[in-house]
Amino acid sequence: MAPGRKAKPPQPSRPANTLILDNGAATLKAGLLSNPTTPPLVIPNLVARDRLRKTYVGSEASAIRDTSDLALRRPVERGSIVNWEVQREIWDRTFLDTGAPLRCDPSETRLVLTEQPNNLPALQANCDQIVFEEYGFASYYRGVGSTFNAYHDVQTLFRTPKDHPTVANAPAEVMLVVDSGYSHTTVTPVLAGRAVHSAVRRLDVGGKLMTNYLARLLSLRHFDMRSETFLVNEIKEAACYVSPDFRRDVERCWKGTRGEKWAEYLTGGGIAKDYILPDFHTRWKGQLVDYDPARHSKSKKIAGSDEDALTLRNERFCIPEIAFNPSDMGMRQPGLPDLIHQSLQTLPVGLWPGLLANILVVGGNVLFDGFIQRLQKEVVQRFPDDCVVRVARPADPITSTWQGAAILANHPHIEKLVVTKKEYEELGASLVARKFAQGLGAG
Amino acid sequence: MNNFGVFEVASAKTTNAPGWAYVPDTGHRPTSTLAPTNRKRARNTAPGPSLGDLTARQEARLRKEVDALMNDGNRDNTIPLPGKRSQGKTGATRKILQSQKTFANHLDDFHAMQQAEATAAATAASSKRGSTLKNQTDMDTSMTDALAVTKPHSPILKPLLTHFPPPHPGDDDPLLMSRVPSVPSDEEIRALLSHPPLTYLEARGTWDGNDAAKPPIRVFCEVCGYWGRVRCMKCGTRVCALDCLETHREECVTRYGL
Predict the structure, then answer these.
(1) Are B73 and A351 within 8 A, CB to CB?
(2) Which residues of B touch A186 (CB under 8 A)?
(3) First to last CA, chain B
(4) Residue B137: CB atoms within 10 Å
(5) Which residues of chain B have pLDDT under 50?
(6) Nearest-CA residue of chain B relative to A200?
(7) Is B183 an interface residue toward A (CB < 8 Å)?
(8) What is the mean pLDDT of chain A?
(9) In angstroms, rounded to a whole number, what is the distance separating the alpha carbons of residues B176 and B182?
(10) pLDDT in tens, chain A (443 residues)
(11) How many other C-beta atoms are found inside a 10 Å radius of the C-beta of residue B106?
């Protein structure tokens, strides 16, 4: 070191901006930190090409009207950013280009980025390199998305009666975060904002798998929809629900014997719904309506009705069911309740009551009707009677992780977590990766 | 079949008589005389419970189908990006940006690296010169502690501050007592939290297919989604009844051999 230089510069002041990115497989949640927290932008994280070979990037994709035969390319694969060429294009359009909605100068911006737990080290290293060397962010923290949820006021979500207000802005002490996203579902026990890494478990069932599975079922039973991922995803979001009693619902969808159709099958049985498919001439959006046998009668078909209706019966609840029983579709993995059981088996019993009473579910799949009730019911069956099981979901489970990260970015903890560009250049990539892996650590 | 009024009762007793014998028939016996001679039937009645009733080929097909569901679309995703961006500011980022590796490629790389490390460690431990090398690496890892701040901190889980309800004479009643396991000590929690992250494969939930305590695996009709009670003789696909079996047979011919 040069003799004239000061040994240590004064603690660098906080960068002017803080950019928070929750880089999901389906959507990118992005926002700049402002004092009253504004909701983040939710941008489809993909590049799409329609039938006329026109390309749409990121937020442009939500404006596509003719979604038939849409080819998609996603930068995030199995929860981690793999294709940086595409990801940089979407990032650039979000916060770098002129006219970008969140325009900011990276050299005076702090980046808080979420990642999946148990990411591959090579992909983490790629991510750090791009952030510092390509964008040149002033400081940066890359943390496990689930842990950010601890910074919410969790007890309000569970509606716990409080005789004294909890310490404001402190991470929840004990909670179990179930993050069911587009790529996969993870179970993360979180103690005071720190993930218990030895107990993190993953189930490779996510929204993408469900959409593709629904596309396969519909292709086998109705029309070929294997190239209509976009439409099938909308059908899934509109029609699917988690059955409270799977066995009963399967029986109710029985079509009857060869000779005579079952009465409940003909009337729909309360489960069957019709999805009116868009024809991309007059109708641009599909629509879910109640099942109407008259719609499928022969006379109507001969008359040449202009609407194509897709009848959904047991597809409605069989699709989300694979999160609870992946073996139903031949996948050799335990269901979500078993996964929670496996995760807790590795922890001391003394933590079980706290974790089970504070299960927070986030991610897009949680929006299925009945998800929480079913999860609660099945988790109760797997643990001693004395354990109270509470499952709650935040008001908006998709942006919940982003909101938590926004609270963390205002919290004193963040100063311990971030790495500045200077530190990165001095310490090198591997030490930075180790610091991120350690997080708040045991300290 | 009318057996001349004789009902055979299965018993564990074996009666020896000249020329012939009653032998208790206790389920499956893979002897050469009892095994089905038909090749297809033999394949479909492979021994094993629940999921094991699939042949290796069916299982491979199933795994392939599940893997296919994790990908985007059914075509190769090569959509060129509109506009031209710079090719990366440094050599390293240029390499990252141009990389066309998929997640599966990265995962394979990671496994290969892990195995190489394991074998290197094994050879280093076995060889004599390895011991000095090992010491060096030990020193190497101990250096990283410079980052960690090791000063005493407040406990991670704060003690509860709420007011407990006033004591009641029935508190010690063994019938009313609730036993709550004690929360682990601060040292135990610190030890838990200092655990390094698991690798990608370690974190996946483990599947114990032969667990007798678990309910058996449900099978569904591939045509209509009802319970799969009947199996196609040709390919082993599950269907629910004759109605669906006929639907399935129409395409089973074309799909056979896949």
Answers:
(1) no
(2) 203
(3) 40
(4) 11
(5) 28-35, 46-52, 74, 130-151, 255-258
(6) B203
(7) yes
(8) 87
(9) 18
(10) 444 444 444 455 678 889 999 999 999 999 998 766 788 999 999 888 888 888 899 888 888 888 888 888 889 988 899 999 999 999 999 988 888 888 889 999 999 999 999 999 999 999 999 999 999 999 999 999 999 999 888 888 888 776 655 555 678 889 999 999 999 999 999 998 889 999 999 999 999 999 999 999 998 888 888 888 889 999 999 999 999 999 999 998 888 877 777 788 888 778 889 898 888 888 888 888 888 887 777 666 656 666 788 889 899 999 999 999 998 888 888 999 999 999 999 999 999 999 999 999 999 999 999 999 999 999 999 998 888 999 999 999 999 999 999 999 988 888 888 999 999 999 888 888 888 888 887 65
(11) 22
SS3 A235: helix
Query: Is the CB of residue A21 less than 8 Å from the CB of residue A111?
Result: yes
What's the one-letter identity of residue B187?
E
- Residue numbers of B between 214 and 253 with CB closer than 8 Å to A: 217-218, 220, 222-227, 241-243
Q: Strands A309-312 and A419-420, how do they pair?
A: unpaired
Which of A72, A255, A441 has its CB closest to that of B73?
A72
For residue A170, CA distances in Å to A70, A143, B151 come to 45, 17, 21
- Sequence-ordered list of residues with C-beta below 8 angstroms from that of B229, at least 6 positions apart, any chain: B221, B238, B239, B240, B241
- Scan for tokens 């601890």, then name that residue: A150
DSSP A130: I
Inter-CA distances, A435 with A418, A438, B144, B147, B199, Å: 9, 5, 10, 8, 17
- Residue B70 contacts A, CB cutoff 8 Å: yes
pTM: 0.84
Q: Do B110 and A118 touch (CB under 8 A)?
A: no
Are the C-beta atoms of residues A292 and A73 closer than 8 Å to each other?
no
**Which residue carries 């976009």 as its tokens?**
A230
Phi-psi region of A170 (alpha: psi -120 to 50; beta: other; left: phi over 0): beta
How far apart are the CA of A233 and the nearest CA of chain B, in angstroms? 12
Distance CA B188, CA B181 (A): 14
φ, ψ for residue A311, nearest 5 deg = -90, 125
Residue with tokens 């790389």: B109
CB atoms within 10 A of CB B207: 15
Report the gap between the CA of A387 and the closest CA in chain B (Å). 9
Q: What is the pLDDT of residue A27?
A: 93
Q: Which residue of B has its CA nearest to A431?
A: B144
Q: How many C-beta neighbours within 10 Å does residue A86 have?
A: 23
Question: Is the Cα torsion angle A141, A145, A146, A152 positive or negative in sign?
Answer: positive
